[in-house]
Model the fold of this input.
Amino acid sequence: MKTILTLVLYFLIVFSSQFGYSQNNDWFTVVYNNVPSDNNLKTQWGYAAWIEKGDEVILFDTGTKSGILQENLRKLGLDPCRVNAIAISHEHLDHTGGLESVLKQVKNGTKVYLPNDFNPSFKKEYDKITFIVNDKYREIAKDIWITEIFIDNNRGIKEQALILEKGEKIIMITGCAHPGIAEMCQSVKDHFPDKKLELVTGGFHLMQMSEERVTQISDKIKQLGFEKVAPSHCTGDHSIAIFKKAWKDDFVQLNLGDSYHF
Ligand SMILES: [Zn+2]
Ligand SMILES: [Zn+2]
Done:
């Protein structure tokens, strides 16, 4: 009898402690990406990520082609009618192409957060959607943020990133990072000075950049305190390889269909 009680107690302790530790029940999945992974999703140039955190379902960017976005979502069992909010990183077709198809499916009153240079011409067709033009750090759902607007000084592109906050952790997702991935990471660190910067992922826009320059940027992200990186989309194969070598076990693969639990 005593043995049974001891066993029961043992299992209770093990299970409760496991329950306590396994709080990584929130997640996101890359639903559109030109960098493939090992699955039957359709690969095409662009980026989109689907985030589920508590009761919140957020779509960050929408890829290039609505048909491909819809097909990938269907294969993943993700229904756009569950989306609570949409955030668009910047106005390039490889991030906005699927938006209008999703707007036809989402609930009335869904909020869409756009960078402040976004062409509003199509908005009038969606009178049940609330479009919010962003210019500063803003909490768009519980513990889900969009950043300030960054500007690419060469091309004038305005861009924002998505931030997931969980307890002490911060996760950052970028679209293309045209204004500079290191500068955007710096801003996030400044805005959340006491947080643990767990991961930055998305497009880092480092194509055709010298190894020396990519290494500087990689070092800067590390110095800022980011623990893991998952560069994809427009980072470029060559630059992704440099990150992989530099970050070793802290390099995470988040290509098309890959998920991250946090
Ligand atoms: Zn872009
Ligand atoms: Zn892009």
About this structure: The longest strand covers residues 196-203. The helical segments are 2-21, 66-76, 93-96, 99-103, 181-191, 211-223, 237-247. Residues 47, 92, 94-95, 175-176, 203, 233-234 surround zinc ion (ligand 2) (CB under 6 Å).
